[in-house]
Task: inverse folding
């Protein structure tokens, strides 16, 4: 049987949210226990909560929405690398990681340990990409890059240069991964964001399988 790693965070209001965006409201609006024919739940949430994908229009006016992202970028062979002990992922970290020919890249950092406590407060000092690392990713032909916290961009950046660099080049940004149980190596990635028409992002169910 093929082994499967679910690297999606459990979607609930327990998780930290990006400051100012708020946590989702998940409410049962119809209950069998109250005499209704069915249980029905309403969800109200920011699309950039928990495990999610960013679309170009998130930071590029007129850019493509999440429904236009190519499935070929979201599904296929992926390389997982571990870069512990970094406050930033730098160009040299990637350049020395044997990524020749890699089209999809997931980066496991010290962020992963934060998910041991799903109820933790938002961590401003998470590991993210430097702008030079983002430029390296674009130049290397990588089509998707994922990281194990809520953004590829450092918190408090005066300009979203990491996002703009990636998204303007058509690189998919996959954020909010839980890579605690995943060892470095090659896997098959299946990343399926909700097909929200024109949206700047969407929640995604993301799994890895053995090749």
Result:
């Amino acid at each position: 049987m093929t082994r499967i790693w679910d690297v999606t965070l459990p979607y609930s209001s327990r998780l930290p949210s990006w400051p100012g965006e708020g946590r989702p409201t998940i409410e049962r609006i119809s209950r069998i226990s109250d005499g209704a024919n069915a249980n029905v739940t309403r969800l109200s949430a920011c699309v950039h909560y928990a495990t999610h994908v960013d679309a170009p229009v998130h930071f590029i006016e007129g850019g493509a929405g999440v429904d236009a992202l190519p499935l070929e970028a979201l599904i296929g062979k992926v390389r997982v690398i571990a870069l512990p002990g970094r406050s930033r992922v730098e160009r040299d970290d990637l350049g020395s990681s044997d990524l020749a020919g890699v089209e999809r890249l997931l980066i496991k950092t010290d962020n992963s340990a934060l998910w041991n406590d799903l109820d933790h407060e938002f961590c401003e000092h998470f590991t993210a990409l430097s702008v030079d690392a983002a430029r390296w990713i674009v130049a290397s032909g990588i089509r998707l890059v994922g990281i194990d916290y809520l953004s590829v961009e450092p918190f408090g950046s005066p300009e979203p240069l990491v996002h703009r660099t990636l998204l303007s080049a058509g690189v998919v940004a996959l954020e909010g991964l839980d890579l605690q149980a995943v060892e470095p190596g090659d896997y098959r990635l299946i990343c399926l964001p909700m097909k929200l028409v024109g949206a700047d992002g969407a929640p995604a169910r993301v799994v890895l399988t053995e090749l």
Summary: The chain has a mean pLDDT of 98. The domain at 4-9+47-209 is CATH 3.50.30.50 (Glucose Oxidase; domain 1). The chain has four helices and twelve strands.
